[in-house]
């Protein structure tokens, strides 16, 4: 029997009207703004009106270090939420929106998989409700106003060589990483070096995801630094009088999007910063709504626990005053064997020796959650048909040695039914007391915070700052930004800043080559290794496989 693709499964499901999903979620119609029959925005005024109502339990889903073998974090998040509802719990999932970059690049879609998906899958993976377009437009409006200010006389004294603000496009386009624009003359603009970030790396994305309401959004936008004057003083969006118009572009994008899983479970899908180059979490408003409406709110953070979970716990939870009740660490036997040195082509064969070599990657992530952040966790083994009983038993044994249970997750094949065991363990963990804490204190110096993340989370020997980064550190400290949390931009493929170091490496140091302040978002971005904020397409992009027939039915998203 031929196995259905993710998009075929999604297209075959019978979706409920979004008004019905809103009723299941407990969203009053007065807060609902429909975008067709199957998606809607929910007015953030609902949070204000429900401010005195209790919050549900918050569950974070994270994962081991990603590999080409796949881990299935979003799939697990969706299946876990469906599983919670299967055992009679009121649960809602809050996820990030996919970026067009990976949709047309490598992944080809990011709305879950198999029978644990959010729908309408094609809409979510493509234009959805236009949030990313609004973010890109606001980002580029600020860039246009900045260059126009310089062209029109530059009364602020902005140094064109000290501009830090880039333009943005939601596409993997390496050609735009570093450009020269403005060819000079009275009509063509002042020539200068420029570049593009992918939209998910724009500070506007981070600001949208961390803002509570319109006044907070406008204030954060106004604080964003676009460059420096000839005297070395920061220039903000407020100095350019840009935040009002930017907020006008973003006022609807700030409202979380309501959709559903294949099983009719309410799902918020809102915001989408990458965790390797940004803070990797969906919006505070979406998470807060899920917690107000449900007894169990499930959310995910991007990439592995050393990136997404660390930023969720050190940045998002700190800013939104969130206290998670439990953490799920997703792993696959195949991915662990890859970390143990097995080639992708050989992952379907039982290999206990390689599995044992790869297990330290999982165990280090689990230990970080338990011992650094003080949170209870469970390992979700995302099941594949090629997993053997001996391999599953070895993973379970090693987890038990750390005092953590492992639950087999079969949500890809069985939907919520395959997530019941995981759901039951999550409910048990949520009743346990925990001693949640961050990995560093805000009153530490920038360098101390960098070292805390590197040593405690990555298990590195420490941090080395390049000459330019050390100058930036002094400048940011002198300007009063040292008290902000840190957002590490680092390869997702390793605990280190070297993508080739798999497993749980030791004896390495993290090199920070650039430090910049995201004053609107409220954190300092540290770029490590060769990480870039504008990815490129692979040799064979997923876009080559995506098509649409004469009836408008899309194929190739997976």
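^ Assign residues to that structure.
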């Amino acid at each position: 029997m031929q196995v259905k693709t993710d998009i075929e499964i999604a297209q075959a499901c019978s979706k409920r009207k979004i008004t019905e999903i809103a009723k299941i979620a407990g969203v009053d119609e007065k807060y609902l703004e429909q975008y067709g029959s199957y998606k809607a925005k929910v007015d953030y005024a609902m949070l204000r009106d429900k401010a005195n109502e209790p919050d549900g339990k918050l569950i974070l889903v994270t994962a081991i270090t990603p590999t080409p073998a796949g881990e299935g974090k979003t799939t697990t998040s969706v299946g876990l939420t469906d599983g919670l509802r299967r055992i009679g719990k009121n649960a809602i999932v809050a996820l990030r929106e996919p970026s067009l970059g990976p949709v047309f690049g490598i992944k080809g879609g990011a709305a879950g998989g198999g029978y644990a998906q959010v729908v309408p899958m094609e809409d979510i993976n493509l234009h959805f409700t236009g949030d990313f377009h609004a973010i890109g437009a606001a980002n580029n409006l600020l860039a246009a106003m900045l260059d126009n200010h310089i062209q029109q006389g530059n009364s602020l004294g902005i140094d064109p060589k000290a501009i830090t603000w880039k333009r943005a496009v939601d596409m993997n386009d390496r050609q735009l990483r570093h450009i020269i624009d403005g060819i000079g003359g009275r009509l063509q603009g002042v020539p200068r070096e420029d570049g593009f970030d992918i939209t998910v790396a724009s500070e506007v994305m981070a600001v949208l995801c961390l803002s509570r309401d319109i006044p907070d959004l406008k204030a954060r936008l106004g604080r964003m630094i676009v460059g420096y004057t000839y005297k070395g003083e920061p220039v903000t969006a407020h100095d350019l009088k840009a935040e009002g118009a930017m907020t006008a572009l973003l006022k609807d994008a700030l409202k979380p999007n309501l959709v559903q899983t294949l099983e009719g479970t309410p799902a918020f899908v809102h915001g989408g910063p990458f965790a390797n180059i940004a803070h990797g979490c969906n919006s505070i408003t979406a998470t807060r709504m899920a917690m107000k409406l449900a007894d169990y709110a499930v959310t995910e953070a991007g990439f592995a626990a050393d990136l997404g979970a660390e930023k969720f716990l050190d940045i998002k939870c700190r800013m939104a005053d969130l206290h998670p009740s439990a953490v799920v660490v997703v792993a696959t036997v195949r991915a662990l064997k890859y970390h143990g040195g097995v080639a992708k082509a050989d992952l379907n064969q039982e290999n206990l020796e390689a599995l044992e070599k790869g297990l330290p990657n999982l165990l280090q992530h689990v230990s970080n959650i338990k011992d650094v952040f003080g949170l209870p966790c469970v390992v979700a083994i995302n099941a594949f048909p090629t997993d053997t009983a001996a391999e599953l038993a070895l993973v379970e044994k090693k987890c038990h040695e750390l005092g953590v249970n492992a639950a087999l997750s079969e949500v890809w094949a069985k939907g919520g039914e395959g997530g019941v065991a995981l759901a039951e363990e999550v409910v048990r963990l949520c009743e346990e007391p925990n001693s949640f804490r961050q990995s560093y204190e805000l009153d530490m110096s920038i360098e101390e915070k960098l070292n805390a993340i590197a040593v405690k989370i990555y298990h590195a020997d420490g941090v080395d700052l390049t000459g330019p980064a050390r100058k930036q550190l002094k400048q940011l400290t002198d300007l009063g930004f040292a008290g902000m949390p840190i957002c590490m931009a680092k390869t997702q493929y390793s605990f280190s800043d070297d993508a080739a170091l798999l497993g749980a490496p030791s004896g390495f140091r993290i090199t920070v080559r650039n430090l910049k302040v995201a004053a609107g978002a409220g954190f300092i971005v540290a770029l490590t290794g060769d990480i870039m904020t504008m990815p490129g397409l692979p040799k064979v992009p997923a876009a080559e496989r995506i098509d649409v027939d004469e009836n408008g039915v899309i194929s190739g998203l997976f």
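The longest strand covers residues 510-518.
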